[in-house]
Amino acid sequence: MSTAITFSRYGEPDVLTVSTAEIPQPGPGQVRIRVRAVAVNLIDVKIRSGHMDGIFPVSFPVTPGWDVAGVVDAAGENATAAVGDEVLGVATAGGYSEYAPVARPAGVSAETAAALVTVGEAAVRGLRHLDVKPGQTLLIHGAAGSVGTIAVQLAVARGLTVIGTAAEEDLGRVAALGATAIRYGQGWADRVRAVARDGIDAVFDTSGAGVLADSVALTGDPGRVITIADESAAQHGVRFTGADPGDRVPEARAELAALAATGQLSVPIWRTYPLAQAARAHADLEAGRNHGKIILRP
Fold first, then answer.
1. How many CB atoms lie under 10 A from the CB of residue 218?
2. Which pLDDT value is given to residue 254?
3. What is the pLDDT of residues 157-191, one digit of tens each?
4. How far apart are alpha carbons 49 and 47 in whole angstroms?
5. 11 backbone φψ class: left, alpha, beta (φ>0; ψ -120 to 50)
6. Taking 90 as the threshold, does the pLDDT of residue 293 lie above it?
7. Cα Dmax for the chain
8. Which residue intervals of the chain are DSSP H helices?
9. CB within 8 A of 269, min separation 6: which ones?
10. pTM of the full structure
11. Residue 250, pLDDT score
């Protein structure tokens, strides 16, 4: 048996409890890892609270969490990693646990590896769909957030002119990544126009802060705006990406891990908690104003 975090009903963070669970066995092509770090994502909070009921059906009790990193301790048939390898990836049996089945090589710290999985893939996916070319101007909403921080770095490295919206206290961090930092809130569109004299070629919304109408107005084309966070996208003719598993780009993880390992990509880790403090981690995430990823360590 192993230690895991589960919940048996929807509710506030305090429904998360320390439990015991069977140690999962790796299937064909899988490995089982001894988890060293698991990222706490907003989707974990939404599922736990019941806000995703009907979209992500669950069977109680639930062990939440997907983004994990650790060391292989058992390998299934035809697995691509061996016992002792460091791996990162998506857990198929709940990541808030001491053990999880997954397979993907790492090469960076456990915390960074876990933080990269979902948010890094989302950043790569958004940029891929927008297909912005070097020299063009990209506006990223939520540029100081987990996805936004990675998207800014990738876009700057690809030769794009990047403008990022963020809270007043986060403007310095966004600027340090190579973007022109703009304070979000009332009047943000005018502030963007003031610095983007040649216009905005595309918009990547990672914030879900009700910015789609003005973003479409800035580009003049809803096809040049994409969101991973605003469920009203269809009302504006904007593409929402992430709900369809077939839309994702899991092959991006190896690229992201390589960039992080060579120092070309930084992933801010805000707080790290023991696995048993998962409820506190969820409360922190729901409170907002985090400055990077929250990580649990078994």
1. 23
2. 76
3. 999 999 999 999 999 999 999 999 999 999 999 99
4. 5
5. left
6. no
7. 61
8. 42-49, 110-130, 146-157, 171-176, 188-195, 212-219, 252-261, 278-287
9. 111, 112, 115, 292, 293, 295
10. 0.82
11. 76
